[in-house]
Amino acid sequence: MQRRLSAFANYTIESPDGKVGYISDALFEDDHWKIRWFVINVGSWLFGHKLLIRPAALGRPDIRQRVFPVTLTKAEVEASPDISSDPPVFRQMEHGMKTVDTYVPIWDIGAFGGYSVGSSDFAIYNERETQQYHAMTNGDLHLRSGGQVIGYGIYALDGDIGHLEDFLMNDETWQIEYALVDTKNWGSGKHILIPVTDIMAIDWAGKYIRIDRTRYDIKSGPSWRKPDLSVRPVP
């Protein structure tokens, strides 16, 4: 069954020996479009740690009770990796920003309109750039946070057309199949389904998603009319 990715936010996680927390995010791969982890906030039980649980550990959700059973015991959940062990891109970038030197050199206009800077300033600048590079590449740059990406602007080949409202995923295979785009910024007010295979790039710094379609093509796509989906949409 297909569901909105955000639909599982705050679902209670229940192990065979009791409740262990709730889902606070889902981490997905933007190259294979598959859920890699669910982020579990275990609250006061483990001092608010956020742990990672594979989708394979989850049973069938109880939609009415908003509960997700897991095959793991509390002890096994406690032994699960922390989010810092496999951080999504936004955490990698934020960590890099906090650890790099905050010094920004003052550049002077040089000959032929180029830029020149003192050797000591250049050394500091070059070191900062190197630190930022390592901070940005010290993790999987394809691992994304659903909670962070939802709301990003949508850019077609010929300009802005709206924002990402959600993703649609298959809750049996955990494969993300469609982006749900709100096009009201462009005047149509429609919610359009776009296959994720049409997504060219996700830009963390600019907070936008680039689509390999024109605005007309996107606007002409299948529309979304219901708050949830029980059957596969027709492309």
Keywords, separated by commas or semicolons:
about 240 residues; alpha+beta; SH3 type barrels; six-stranded mixed sheet; about 20% helix
What does this structure look like?
The strands form 3 sheets. Strands 1, 10, 11, 12, 13, 14 and 15 form a 7-stranded mixed beta sheet that branches. Strands 2, 3, 4, 5, 6 and 9 form a 6-stranded mixed beta sheet that branches. Strands 7-8 form a two-stranded antiparallel ribbon. It is globular and about 55 Å long. The protein has 5 helices and 15 strands. Residues about 95-135 and about 230-235 have low confidence and may be disordered. It is of the alpha+beta class and about 240 residues long. It has 3 domains: about 1-85, SH3 type barrels (Roll); about 90-135, no CATH class; about 150-220, Roll (SH3 type barrels), CATH 2.30.30.240.
Q: Any chance you could write out the topology, listing elements then pairs?
A:
Layout: E1 2-4, E2 12-15, E3 18-29, E4 34-41, E5 50-53, E6 67-69, H1 74-78, H2 89-99, E7 108-109, E8 115-116, H3 119-137, E9 143-145, H4 146-149, E10 153-156, E11 159-170, E12 175-182, E13 191-195, E14 199-203, E15 208-211, H5 215-219
Parallel strand pairs: 2-6, 10-15
Antiparallel strand pairs: 1-11, 2-3, 3-4, 3-9, 4-5, 7-8, 10-11, 11-12, 12-13, 14-15
Question: In summary, what is this structure?
Answer:
This protein has helices at 74-78, 89-99, 119-137, 146-149, 215-219, and strands spanning 2-4, 12-15, 18-29, 34-41, 50-53, 67-69, 108-109, 115-116, 143-145, 153-156, 159-170, 175-182, 191-195, 199-203, 208-211. With 235 residues, the protein is an alpha+beta fold.
